[in-house]
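Weekly modeling sync, notes
Attendees: S.R. (lead), two postdocs, one rotation student

Agenda item 3: backlog of single-chain predictions. S.R. asked that every request posted to the team notebook include the full sequence so nobody has to chase files. The rotation student volunteered to paste the first one in as an example of the format we agreed on. Action items at the bottom.

Example entry:
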Amino acid sequence: MGAGTRDLSGTRTDGSAHNLMRAVSAIEMALWDLAGKTLEVPASTLLGGRFRDTVRVYDHAAPRNMLDKASVAEWAARVKAHPSGFTCHKFGLQHSDPTTDKARDVSNRVLTTKELVAVQKGFENCREAVGCDHDLMVHCHWEYDLRTAIQIAGAVESVKPLWLEDPLPVDYSDSWKRLCATSKVPICMGENLARREGFKDFILNQGCDILHPDLRNAGGFLETKRIADMAHVFGLPMATHNTGSQIYTFAAAQWAASIHDYIALETITGEGGWMDQVLLLDGPYIKDGFVRVADKPGLGIELNPDIVRAHLAPGETWWG
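Predicted structure, as returned to the notebook:
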């Protein structure tokens, strides 16, 4: 599978090392779909049964300017009126531009005092505007050192975020353990890790508070369920990374339904465009911020051929 191709989970690959795991994971999930259809039961039944019939999903809606109260008020009104009813929002930090702020040293993964104050003020503005009926997650991209990660956790602590995601470099080190012991904000990580081996040290050493695998990277349904079972022994809940299509969202919901201690599923869909029409559905795709777990066999999905044909990637042909 080459760079820029589309994998079986409905997402475009990026040419990274994820390609192999995504191919394997997609085939594994497709086989669960086939087994469910053969036995005429949902995939969640084959995975051991359901703990829930709906799965909470979160979006990436963010204010244009977290430091401008008018912009934040506009954002809060927009997310509260959103037809999908999202009540869970993940977005990144508001900090200065390293191209214009000479105090910013991009060679060190640190934030200046000015930036830390802006981070705190920005998220406090968001909490004040949106209220406590909506959850906020603080999104990082593995770019900070330990001391800066601790400072960021302290800066956002007052808004009670659901989690602080991926502040440190991807692989396990004792810095993750120290961060968790220090931070009052739950620490979430895992989207780039593969198989139980990738998660083992985080679980055994309490190097995170919430595991956030991507089924496409972690090994598919069964391998990621084994990760969840290991985490359950240590009292660590699961959430799920998802930058995939409506197809993958429905697949991830089947898996999430079978997990005892589960928080939320990421999605880039639910915005009302063609990506919400890839499947033939009986009703709204996302309602009140939740996806209903399909009761039909396998993944419980049926492609909408007209929409799929109209949005095939260049060079691809319809296989139906």
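Discussion: group reviewed the output briefly. The two ends are 21 Å apart (CA to CA).
Action items: rotation student to repeat for the remaining queue; S.R. to check formatting next week.
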